[in-house]
């Protein structure tokens, strides 16, 4: 009985969820009314969409019954995994499950954030056994090729031409953002057409082989938001492939139910005061979201104001970071809620009015729902009252997410982290100023990185600190920062390889990582498509090949096994991707400048939907002031008041440049960006400049002071020397007299000594003769004695051989042999002892017997004794040989006895001679004593003479020394007078210069502010804007705040060395002030210069200036550009990178940014994928021929943009040189020679003065002793004066030449005016471009071909007329016909304007007409019939011009 009603209800249910499933909220109401008219059995409450057919009850049952209202949310799981079922999600899932089971392709539509992806993921998560799924996120860059490749990556070949999912399963392909691909030129969406081809026919084509490819067992499930905001409408043919279902936007009640469930679950174990806050917090959050979504709609300038329920969920996610321990009061929870609301909505607002609006909205909700208020919570009004929240302030496990009320502690902690970061290997130090806004940004970025799957989009101009603060936040969060390195050939393949590395790091190695990616690295927009995929699904389609997937799965297999994640390849890869999503955070740094940001937000919705936006706005004035104060902490500017005022000047200068940039854009359409990096460079430049100028001027003053001190010392020494000199003259005269007196005394004593010496010498001669005679007698005596010596020696030797033992042998004889007895009796006789054997034995018993024999006094041998001895020796047997046969000892004694006899005999003969010798010697001795007395007397006399002589020598030497000293003093006095008189003029000049230098040093605080501001900011501006900023803003502010400064400050004179400027002029830099300023900025800038040089003047100047330094010239189109740069960086050569356009190769970014890497004592820089040794001599110059390029803030912050567009004044000077060179080559040659001569002369003067001062300052000891120094000083002084005289003559001659040359000035003025007429034609049509080189050639042609005349005025007229017509002809042939008359008018008017023959007011009226602002005061039109209203407006306004007074009355009278 229920069969038919059940079939009918089922049919109606199918009708509702097929035809009726596609409509929106309003459509559902209409469809509900339509169905109720057909069938009245539906329940009366709600719409038919709120019911399903219950098989058990067999009736319409509310979907709400399928919800388990009592189920609690598990708040411990990651936020993105929390799913709160609603009626909409339950019924949509049911319908999709049913369609999947019936194998119908399905489409889910609905606004962003309604939960389409969540429902689909639930469907995919509950697929039947035998089914697998894949997810594809489309973007504007998705092509049919990439879609086909992505799907085919999940297929395998079954048979020839037939492909199906792996493992024999059926594949459900989920495609999100289905309508995001951009339309082709023919208006269709190629990826969608590919799917329609397959859905209709079951195949598509192999694009390589052009063969049919059948794809089996695949089901499509797509999701999309309605067209608009980058999403495209597509044909119904494509839509017809799918069964559609529209998910309506959740109602406020549904949203409250979802998020209240989460919050109540979170707060269930909190204190009683907080526990009931879940519902009111949800209500406030939903109401704030609804108001924001309704009020803050996207506009062209706020294209990112795209709010959806994801943002609502992020606020709730933030509130759920509260922990029971640290949140124990209602106020703490409301502070957290306010903070999180501001983080999600307020951080994307760059308009302060919008932020204030949001604050007021929160204040209203706090008052209405919580009976509180903003001021109650944060104790004061204003957004700045809200403290940032962070988790890194406490060093504990699971630190709380809490407000940081102590900003000083936060700053100190982050400064420590910054220092630690600089010590990390491979990291370069970041010089960050952590003012209040920067601290807030770090906390915001860290907050995002701490959230599961938290990604950040940092929006701000280049130089606002996005990347630096992101790196610091990453370091604080203890995550690994990953960045890609751009090279010249970096494309999609290289990007994918880097992404593989990143995925393996995050997924394979399980390292929490941050991918920091900025817009300068977006070489191809497809990079963003991959990033968009990572943000939305976590997976980049076909990132890994099938072979690589196997390796990736093996890397995670062990971890997957521990987590029970499965072991099949699909499950392992899914585990890998989930781990990537858990570990990987993306920080995108994009610039809001231009259309690009808006286009990217539109084309890649994940950039906004899946990130938390943090907008880096301009630094507020208090931040600018704080940064300046911090940087100038250690600087001594005199007083704290001056330092404070200098900081205020920094602030106002930065703000004024922003305003001037806006005015320049309005007037000239020339864009210039002013970023915080410019400001930091300004402040650091000021410090460097102040230090440099103090040192430079201080050194100059110190040198002069040193010179003056030396001159003063010399003056004092001269006075002292003059006194000493007079005293020395008296002493020298006295010494001379003493010497003469001493000489007389010496001569007298010398005469007496000489006479005495003669007598002594005669006596000495006589005594010497007698001594010779005595010596002859002694010699004769000695000769006699020498005869006995051999025998004596023999006897002595024989005795020496004998020993006591030998004597003992003889002594033991009781009865000795006769011969032995004979010998010993002979010995006893010699010794005058009794010649008996007993006596012999007795004597031999004496131990010194032999010694006695040896020492025996031979001179005692008298005649009687010799006779006795002879009795023995005369015996025949008394010979040593015979005796020796009997006894060896007796032999020796025998020899001794014989020797004694021989000696005694000879001595007897010599005795008379000896007596004679003694008498002679006694007489000689007496005479020698007398001689010695005489000699002693002579020595005394000679000593006296020598003493006088020594005194004389000493006196003479003393006199000579005194004379030398006097001469030296006189010479020094001469030198001193020469030195003092020579440097007398210098003294006056040096004293004046010291005063000037001291005054300049006192003016430095203000002068350096203006100079540093000029260096940092003035480069891109034309001269009139520069002058306005310097005179009317910067200097005015400096003087208003009483910062010491020069009354006549001039930037070029302050920073440029005159000799350098002269060299620049010689090398081709125009001599006008504007060009000189540019030269200073180029050569002294802290950043590499990027010169806007449409006329090529900067190019030529750089080439000539750096020619001698081995300049390398390159451009970005050269294949070996990187190699040239690499070589130049290593070897310190300058590089000219010419003809760049509006983009600079990303590979040069580290060079532009000067990102040096210090490794040991070496400096390196990264160029592409190589680290290159950096030489400090390296220089980089960049030029562009574009007249009005639009460089991004990133380029503006890394390079100093310098506007080298030629000025009329500069061009006029150049053309005057050209005309004089051709008309008066003699003058031109003389002028050029004089320019070089003057430059050399000035340089020589400067060098000589430096040399004089250097020698004075480095001289040691007395200046007057340094002969070389005085000679060099004298020579230098002479040369200086010669050069000075020649310079005076040269400058007088140059003035005469200048006067003569200026006679041709009318020609140069006319030629310059005509060039700028041509130059301005580009404003009419960009095609009209005229080269200055070509114009110069045309001018030279006119000089050569124009009629000649000896009368100068006639010649000038002929040349001007000829050249004017030549310019018209030359230009007109390249113009459209309608512009030729305009050219004639412009030439005519500009020529007349140069001679003041055109009234500027009247000409402006002629161009623009008049506009009547007050119609009521306008006289009535007297003739409506023939005077139009527009004409009458012009006539009545013409009345206001002086020469047209009365024209209105004239018309009225004439018509009347």
What is the number of strand segments? Answer: 26
End-to-end gap? 103 Å
| H/I helix tally | 51
Helicity level:
55-70%
Radius of gyration, rounded?
59 Å
Shape, principal axes of CA atoms: elongated
Approximate strand percentage = 5-15%
Helix/strand/pairing class, anyone? alpha/beta
- Biggest β-sheet description: 5 strands, parallel
* Spatial order of the strands forming the largest sheet: 4-7-10-3-11
Give the overall average pLDDT: 84
Instruction: Enumerate the spans where pLDDT stays under 50 for 5 or more consecutive residues.
Output: none
In terms of topology, how is this protein built?
Elements: H1 3-16, H2 25-38, E1 51-54, E2 59-62, H3 87-101, E3 106-109, H4 116-125, E4 131-137, H5 144-152, E5 155-159, E6 162-165, E7 170-176, H6 190-201, E8 203-206, E9 211-215, E10 218-224, H7 236-239, E11 243-246, H8 252-267, H9 278-295, H10 309-319, H11 330-344, H12 352-370, H13 374-378, E12 389-390, E13 402-403, H14 407-423, H15 436-450, E14 456-459, H16 466-476, E15 480-482, H17 492-508, E16 513-518, H18 526-536, H19 546-562, H20 569-583, E17 584-590, H21 596-603, H22 606-609, E18 612-615, H23 621-631, H24 640-668, H25 676-801, H26 804-811, H27 818-830, H28 837-845, H29 849-854, H30 863-873, H31 880-886, H32 888-982, H33 984-1018, H34 1023-1040, H35 1051-1055, H36 1058-1066, H37 1073-1084, E19 1088-1092, H38 1097-1105, E20 1112-1114, H39 1121-1131, E21 1134-1137, H40 1149-1153, E22 1156-1159, E23 1162-1167, E24 1170-1173, E25 1179-1184, H41 1193-1198, E26 1199-1203, H42 1208-1223, H43 1225-1258, H44 1267-1302, H45 1305-1320, H46 1332-1345, H47 1352-1372, H48 1377-1394, H49 1400-1408, H50 1429-1438, H51 1447-1455
Parallel strand pairs: 3-10, 3-11, 4-7, 6-9, 7-10, 14-17, 14-18, 15-16, 16-17, 19-25, 19-26, 20-21, 21-25
Antiparallel strand pairs: 1-2, 5-6, 8-9, 12-13, 22-23, 23-24
């Amino acid at each position: 009985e229920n069969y038919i009603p059940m079939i009918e209800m089922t049919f109606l249910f199918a009708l509702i969820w097929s035809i009726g499933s596609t409509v929106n909220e309003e459509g559902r109401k209409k469809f509900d009314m339509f169905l109720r008219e057909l069938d009245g059995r539906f329940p009366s409450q709600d719409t038919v969409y709120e019911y399903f057919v219950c098989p058990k009850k067999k009736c319409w049952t509310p979907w709400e019954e399928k919800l388990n209202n009592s189920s609690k949310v598990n708040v411990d799981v990651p936020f993105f995994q929390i799913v709160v079922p609603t009626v909409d999600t339950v019924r949509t899932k049911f319908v999709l499950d049913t369609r999947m089971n019936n194998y119908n392709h399905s489409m889910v539509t609905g606004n962003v954030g309604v939960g389409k992806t969540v429902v689909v993921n639930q469907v995919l998560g509950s697929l039947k056994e035998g089914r697998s799924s894949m997810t594809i996120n489309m973007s504007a860059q998705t092509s049919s090729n990439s879609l086909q490749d992505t799907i085919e990556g999940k297929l395998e070949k079954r048979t020839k031409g037939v492909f199906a999912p792996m493992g024999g399963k059926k594949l459900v392909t989920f495609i999100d953002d289905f309508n995001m691909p951009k339309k082709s030129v023919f208006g269709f969406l190629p990826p969608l057409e590919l799917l329609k081809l397959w859905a209709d026919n079951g195949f598509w084509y192999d694009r390589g082989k052009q063969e049919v490819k059948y794809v089996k067992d695949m089901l499509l499930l797509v999701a999309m938001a309605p067209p608009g905001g980058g999403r495209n409408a597509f044909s119904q043919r494509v839509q017809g492939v799918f069964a559609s279902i529209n998910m309506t936007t959740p109602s406020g009640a549904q949203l409250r139910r979802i998020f209240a469930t989460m919050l109540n679950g979170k707060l269930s174990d909190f204190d009683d005061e907080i526990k009931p806050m879940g519902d009111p917090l949800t209500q406030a959050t939903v109401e704030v979201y609804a108001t924001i979504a309704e009020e803050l709609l996207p506009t062209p300038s706020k294209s990112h104001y795209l709010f959806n329920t994801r943002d609502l969920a992020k606020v709730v996610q933030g509130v759920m970071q509260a922990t029971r321990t640290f949140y124990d009061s209602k106020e703490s929870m409301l502070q957290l809620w306010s903070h999180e609301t501001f983080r999600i909505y307020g951080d994307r607002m760059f308009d302060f009015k919008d932020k204030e609006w949001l604050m007021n909205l929160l204040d209203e909700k706090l008052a209405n729902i919580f009976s509180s208020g903003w001021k109650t919570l944060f104790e004061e009004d204003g957004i700045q009252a809200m403290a940032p929240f962070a988790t890194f302030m406490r060093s504990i496990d699971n630190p709380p997410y809490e407000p940081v009320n102590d900003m000083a502690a936060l700053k100190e902690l982050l400064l420590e982290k910054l220092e630690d970061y600089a010590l990390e290997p491979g990291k370069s130090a970041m010089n960050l100023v952590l003012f209040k806004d920067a601290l807030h940004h770090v906390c915001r970025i860290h907050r995002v990185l701490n959230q599961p799957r938290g990604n950040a989009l940092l929006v701000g101009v280049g130089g606002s600190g996005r990347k630096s603060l992101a790196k610091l936040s990453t370091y604080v969060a203890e995550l690994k920062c990953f960045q890609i390195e751009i090279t010249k050939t970096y494309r999609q393949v290289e990007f994918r390889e880097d992404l593989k590395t990143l995925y393996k790091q995050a997924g394979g190695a399980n390292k929490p990582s941050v991918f920091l990616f900025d817009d300068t690295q977006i070489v191809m927009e497809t990079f963003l498509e991959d990033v968009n995929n990572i943000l939305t699904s976590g997976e980049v389609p076909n990132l890994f090949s099938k072979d690589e997937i196997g390796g990736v799965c093996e890397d995670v297999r062990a971890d997957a096994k521990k987590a029970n994640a499965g072991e099949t390849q699909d499950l392992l890869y899914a585990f890998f991707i989930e781990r990537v999503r858990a570990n990987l955070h993306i920080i995108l740094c994009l610039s809001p400048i231009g259309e690009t940001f808006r286009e990217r937000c539109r084309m890649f919705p994940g950039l906004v939907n899946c990130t938390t936006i943090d907008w880096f706005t301009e630094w507020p004035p208090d931040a600018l002031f704080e940064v300046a104060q911090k940087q100038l902490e250690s600087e001594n500017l005199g007083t704290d008041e001056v330092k404070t005022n200098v900081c205020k000047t920094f602030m106002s200068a930065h703000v004024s440049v922003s305003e001037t940039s806006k005015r320049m854009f309005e007037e000239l359409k020339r864009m210039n960006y002013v970023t915080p990096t410019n400001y930091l460079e300004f402040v650091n430049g000021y410090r460097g400049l102040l230090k440099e100028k103090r040192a430079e001027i201080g050194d100059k003053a110190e040198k002069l002071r040193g010179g003056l001190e030396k001159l003063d010392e010399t003056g004092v020494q001269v006075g002292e020397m003059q006194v000493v000199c007079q005293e020395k003259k008296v002493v020298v005269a006295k010494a001379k007299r003493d010497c003469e007196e001493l000489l007389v005394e010496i001569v007298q004593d010398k005469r007496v000594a000489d006479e005495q010496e003669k007598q002594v010498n005669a006596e000495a001669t006589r005594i010497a003769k007698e001594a010779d005679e005595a010596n002859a007698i002694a010699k004769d005596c000695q000769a006699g004695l020498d005869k006995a010596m051999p025998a004596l020696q023999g006897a002595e030797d024989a005795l020496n051989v004998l020993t006591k033992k030998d004597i003992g042998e003889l002594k033991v004889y009781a009865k000795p042999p006769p011969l032995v007895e004979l010998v010993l009796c002979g010995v006893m006789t010699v010794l005058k002892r009794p010649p008996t054997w007993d006596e012999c034995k007795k004597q031999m018993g004496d131990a010194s017997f032999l010694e006695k024999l040896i020492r025996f006094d031979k001179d005692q041998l008298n005649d009687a004794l010799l006779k006795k001895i002879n009795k023995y020796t005369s015996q025949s047997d008394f010979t040593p040989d015979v005796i020796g046969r009997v006894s060896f000892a007796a032999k020796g004694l025998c020899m001794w006895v014989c020797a004694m006899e021989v000696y005694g005999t000879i001595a007897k003969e010599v005795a008379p001679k000896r007596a004679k010798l003694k008498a002679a010697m006694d007489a000689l001795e007496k005479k020698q004593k007398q001689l010695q007395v005489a000699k002693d007397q002579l020595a005394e006399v000679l000593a006296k003479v020598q003493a006088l002589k020594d005194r004389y020598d000493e006196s003479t030497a003393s006199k000579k020394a005194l004379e030398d000293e006097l001469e030296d003093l006189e010479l020094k006095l001469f030198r001193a007078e020469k030195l003092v008189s020579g440097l007398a003029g210098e003294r006056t000049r040096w004293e004046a210069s010291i005063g000037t230098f001291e005054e300049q040093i006192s003016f430095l605080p203000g002068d350096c502010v203006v100079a540093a501001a000029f260096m940092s900011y003035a480069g891109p501006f034309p001269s009139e804007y520069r002058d306005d900023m310097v005179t009317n803003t910067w200097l005015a502010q400096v003087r208003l705040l009483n910062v010491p400064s020069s009354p006549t400050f001039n930037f070029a004179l302050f920073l440029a060395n005159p000799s350098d400027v002269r060299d620049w002029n010689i090398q081709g830099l125009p001599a006008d002030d504007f060009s000189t300023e540019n030269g200073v900025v180029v050569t002294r800038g802290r950043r590499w210069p990027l010169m806007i040089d449409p006329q090529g003047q900067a190019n030529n100047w750089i080439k000539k200036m750096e020619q001698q330094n081995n300049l390398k010239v390159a451009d970005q189109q050269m294949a070996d550009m990187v190699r040239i740069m690499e070589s130049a960086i290593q070897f310190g050569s300058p590089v000219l990178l010419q003809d760049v356009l509006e983009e600079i190769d990303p590979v040069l970014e580290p060079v532009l940014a000067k990102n040096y890497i210090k490794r040991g004592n070496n400096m390196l820089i990264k160029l592409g994928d190589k680290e290159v040794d950096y030489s400090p001599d390296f220089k980089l110059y960049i030029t562009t021929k574009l007249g009005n390029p639009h460089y991004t803030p990133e380029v503006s912050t890394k390079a100093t943009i310098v506007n080298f567009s030629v000025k009329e004044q500069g061009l006029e000077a150049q053309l005057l040189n050209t005309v004089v060179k051709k008309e008066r080559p003699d003058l031109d040659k003389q002028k050029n020679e004089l320019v070089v001569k003057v430059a050399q002369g000035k340089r020589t003067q400067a060098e000589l003065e430096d040399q004089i001062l250097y020698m004075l300052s480095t001289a040691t000891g007395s200046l007057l002793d340094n002969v070389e120094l005085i000679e060099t000083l004298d020579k230098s002084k002479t040369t200086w004066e010669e050069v000075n005289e020649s310079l005076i003559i040269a400058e007088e001659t140059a003035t005469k030449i200048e006067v003569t040359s200026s006679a041709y000035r009318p020609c140069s003025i006319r030629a310059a005016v005509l060039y700028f007429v041509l130059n301005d034609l580009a404003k009419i049509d960009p095609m009209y471009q005229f080269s200055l080189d070509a114009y110069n050639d045309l001018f030279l042609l006119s000089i050569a071909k124009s009629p000649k005349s000896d009368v100068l005025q006639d010649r000038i007229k002929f040349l001007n007329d000829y050249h004017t017509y030549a310019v018209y002809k030359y230009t007109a042939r390249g113009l459209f016909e309608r512009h030729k008359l305009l050219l004639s008018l412009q030439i005519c008017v500009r020529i007349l304007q140069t001679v003041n023959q055109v009234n500027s007011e009247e000409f402006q009226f002629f161009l623009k007409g008049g506009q009547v602002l007050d119609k009521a005061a306008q006289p009535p039109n007297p003739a409506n019939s023939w005077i139009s209203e527009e004409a009458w407006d012009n006539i009545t306004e013409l009345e206001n011009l002086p020469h047209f007074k009365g024209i209105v009355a004239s018309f009225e009278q004439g018509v009347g």
